[in-house]
Every structure is written in C-alpha cells, then in structure tokens.
Amino acid sequence: MKPFSIYNTLTRKVEEFVPRHGRIVTYYSCGPTVYLPQHLGNLRAYVFVDTLKRALRFNGYDVRHVMNITDVGHLTSDADAGEDKIEKTARAEGKSPLAVAKYYTDQFKRDCARLRIELPPDEESITGAVRPPASILCRATNHIADMIGLIERIVRNGLGYVTASGVYFDVEKWRGPSGMGRLSRQSLTEQHAGQRLEHSADKRSPHDFALWVLNQPHHLMQWDSPWGRGYPGWHIECSAMAMRYLGETIDIHSGGLDHIPVHHENEIAQSEGATGQPFVRYFVHNAFLVGMEGAKISKSAGRFPVLDDLVAAAIDPLAFRLLCFGAKYRSELAFNLDAVRAAAKNLGYLQEFTRSLPESAIGADDAAWAAEYRERFHDALNNDLNTPVALAVMLELVAEANRRQDPRVWHTLNDFDQVVNLGLAHELRASREEATDARLQGLLEQREAARQARDYQRSDDLRREIEALGWEIKDTKEGPRITRRRGTP
Ligand code: AMP
Ligand code: ZN
Predict the structure, then answer these.
(1) Which of 145, 237, 406, 457 lies at a C-alpha separation of 20 to 30 Å from 255?
(2) What is the pLDDT of residue 196?
(3) What structural domains does the chain harbor?
(4) H-run or E-run covering 425
C-alpha cells in the first residue's frame, strides 16, 4: 500500500496521513456562506475538497464527509463586527433570511453539480435516519441546540463568560497545548491585523470572540438560550456540527487559507476548551484563486467571476475543474479566460479520445504498458495531492495510446477519472447511445424501403436486427412505431 501524504498546517510539514480508525476518515470542510453567488475562488475551494475526498477513496479509504452551510452568524467581518451577511442581503433584496439562504444554497448546489463536485447528502433529503448519517451537508440554523450545548460546556470549564452583549470565549484564559496561535503561528495582534475588532465595552479583551450574541433586537434570526434570546457566533457552528457527526477528534479539517488566523484558530480553541481533546489531526488549506494583477477574488471586492460567466462565454464548466487540477492546491492560481480555454482544449482531447474508443478496447484488459502510468498517477496523488503531475500523466497516457495506436487503456483512464472526475464513463455511454441511435435509424429506413418494395423476407430480417438492438417494432396505420423491449436497459 502506498502511503498518502498531505501538508498539515498544524506542523507545517508534508506528513504521512494515518486515520484514527483503520480505513475510515472523518473529514470536515468549511462550506459556503449563502448570501451571494459563489465566485470562482470559492468554487476552487470546493473542487479541492472534492479532489481530496476522491484521492482518499482512490487509496481505499471510506470518507465520512461533513460540510456546513452558513446561514446565520457570519458577520461582514470575520471578527465580531458588522452585520450578519445573510440579513444584509435579505434587507437589500426585501426577502426573508430563510429565502436568501435557500436561494443561494440551491445555486451553490447547482454550481457544484456542474463542476461534478460531489456534495454529502443534504440533511433535508435524509429522512427517518435513526443514527446520525456518516456524511452530511448541514445548516447552522438546524444545529442551534448543538451549539448551545457546546457553549455550555465551554462556560462550565471557565473559558466562556456572559455579559450583556453576549457569551464570549476568554482567549487569555485558554492556554490549550500552546494557546491561541498554534495554527497561524501568529500573535493575537497579528491574527487580527486588518480586522475591525468589536471593542464591546463588556469584553475582557478585544481578542475575545462571540460564542452567542445577545441584545441585538434588529437581528431577524433569534433563538432562546440559557443566556437569553440571541444568535450564535460564526465559529461555533463548525465545531458543533463537526463534533455532532464526526466525534470530538476529527482526522481532517479543510478550508481556504484566509480561515487560518481567525476562524480556525477560534474553532480549535473553543473545541478543545470544551472537550479537552485535540480537535483536528490534519488541517489542510487551499490557496487562492487570483484575478488580474494577482488580486484575491473575493465577494467584498464587488465584481467577481462566477460559473455563469463561463457558461455565457460558451465554456464547459468542467474546463474550470480541469484548470484547478493544473495547479497545486497550495499554490495561487491565476484566473483568466485564456487559461480556462487552454484547459477546455485538454478536456476536449480526453473526451474525444474516449468517444473514439473501439468496443474491443473496452471489453479487453488494458495493455501491459499502461501499468506504469497508473503507478505514476497514484504516486502524484499521494505526494501532497500533486494534481498537475497526475493530470499530466493522464494526458500522457492518452498521447501514448495514440502514438502506439493501441487504445487498450480504458480501465486505467476510467480509474484516473474517479479522481479527476470529468465524467468520461458518461461520455463513453453517450457516444455509444448515439452510435446505436444512428444504426437504429438506418435499419428503420432500410426496413421501410423493403416494405414499400414488398420484400417481406428482407423486412423480417431487418426487424430481427432491430430487436437485437433492444427495440420492439409495431406497424401501425401511422407507420412503424418502436418501443424499448422489456428487460433491456
Ligand atoms: P465563504 O463563503 O466566504 O465562507 O468562503 C467559502 C470558502 O471559499 C472558504 O473555504 C474560503 O476560504 C474559500 N475562498 C474564498 N475566497 C477564495 C479564493 N479567492 N480562492 C480560493 N478559495 C477561496
Ligand atoms: Zn468553518
């Protein structure tokens, strides 16, 4: 078995990944805040999540994946300042927060589907489950009780305190294995640089962060709690949902680089402050997608590229998926239309090859020479998810098959595609169906001609050929009508 290695932000090293429980991996990834469309930078983060999950599966792991949907509590600053992002949009659009969250959640799911990103099953589609499901896409607003329970533990441990404006985490008191800053390796002042800190008069330190917010009557979403009506801070949702479904110590937690200094530091502190157990074993972070002149693509920047922009430019969304593969997840990736068009060429090359595969190559074992490519692909994945190399190997495999005029590589290519996930098996099926349709059409026309010429022998022979393709034929007054034969796919 090949070891799988990944860069752990906690240790700043590429480490061999060993899950806690055999072949089971518990994985929590920070999901979207649903108040605006997801921009291509966000989608890069989710392509990364999907790729990591698929690479782990390629290595035989059973991945239990939890992703949250932030539909309350994320303020316009990552620290406790500004308005709730969902409510801000709700006011601007004259909708309820629930309607805003639903609209952008649906849009997020649609974009993920177009990028062939597999999301965990939506909690709203899971009914009657007795035990918590292994994988789930879950909303903050459906887990308020879990958050309250966690905050109670923190307060009981003396790490949270209650004031008129909320319940806060006391960062000075929390020492943990090395206090705040274990992940970011920054002082509190450095972690909060550029953030507008809420100097709430009743906070012990400006660095303390809200677990529960009180006395904000203008806030639309409010719940009862032991401390009074209010709403949760942003960070607590991730700890509460991760623990609810995956346990107190999880194997992998991911998010974008921007989450390291505030969101993930706070998640560690409050989780470990509640349980006394290590929260995350491997923290992994994706780098940014940047626009022109290297500027980070962000929602606060105003105009940002979205997937619909590519569709409008007649570019297959999967070209964006392939563009993401062309860069290491830890490297910045520059976005521009030329780069996506170059990726679209590679996509076309792989699709074209798949469509042209002869039946003999699909039925047969792969050529012996393809085995070396599988090794190289696997090595690249296991080397800190080196997708540019893995993708190059995939393209080389096809180039070599063309050069040798030996197309017996389908099984290898299809296995690679379980990770790259361009839907090549679907492409193959579609091309076969088109070929069958064309053949069926030809046979029907020939049979009609035979009938007109009263050549019933030939007409019957053609009927049998049509039936062999899986179709039943009935001659009616309006002409021949065909239906699928029972038992055929
Ligand atoms: P948000 O919806 O703002 O909470 O962000 C969702 C995810 O996208 C988080 O994991 C962010 O770290 C990530 N993210 C935000 N902007 C970018 C970007 N330009 N490139 C890559 N990832 C990003
Ligand atoms: Zn999170």
Answers:
(1) 145
(2) 59
(3) 5-286 (3.40.50.620), 291-422 (1.10.730), 428-484 (no CATH)
(4) helix 424-452
pLDDT in tens, 226-258: 999 999 999 999 999 999 999 999 999 999 999
Give the DSSP H or E segment for 225: none
Q: Is 264 in the pocket of ligand 1 (CB under 6 A)?
A: no
- For a mutational test of ligand 1's pocket, the pick from 40, 49, 258, 298, i.e. the residue with the most ligand atoms closer than 8 A to its C-beta, is 258
Looking at the CA of residue 333, tell me the nearest atom of ligand 1: 20
Distance 79 CA to ligand 2 centre (A): 13
Name the one residue in this structure whose structure tokens are 């530091």.
265
DSSP-assigned states of every residue in 121-150: PBGGG--S-SSPPSSEEEEGGG-HHHHHHH
C-alpha triplet 444, 448, 453: angle, nearest 5°: 150
Percentage of the chain beyond pLDDT 70 is: 95
Q: How far apart are alpha carbons 166 and 77 in whole angstroms?
A: 17
Q: What is the pLDDT of residues 284-337, one digit of tens each?
A: 999 999 986 667 777 776 678 999 999 999 999 999 999 999 999 999 999 999
